[in-house]
Design a protein that fits this description.
The chain is an all-alpha fold and 94 residues long. It has helices at residues 5-41, 44-63, 69-93. It has a single domain (5-93), classed as Methane Monooxygenase Hydroxylase, Chain G, domain 1.
Amino acid sequence: MANHKSALKRIRSNERKRLQNRQWRTRARTAIKKARALIAAGELEQARLATQEAVRVLDKAAVKGILHPNNAARRKGRLMKYLAQLEKQAQQEA
């Protein structure tokens, strides 16, 4: 256990930050899963909207320092790649 007031305060603030970071990470994972599920189901319009939402959440998490910017960029790139494949597939069918 910490002995100094500043160390005790650091413990409290770290716990608050940990909980907030966990919320953002969970929100990002959920948005990505939702987008990938819609892409896999072949629902183009809903997949576009879900991908936009996932990109927005990932960008916010990166700006807040919760995710490394390269990590967010990699996840966004993968999502956009899957969406592009779905769009290409939908174009060929039409």
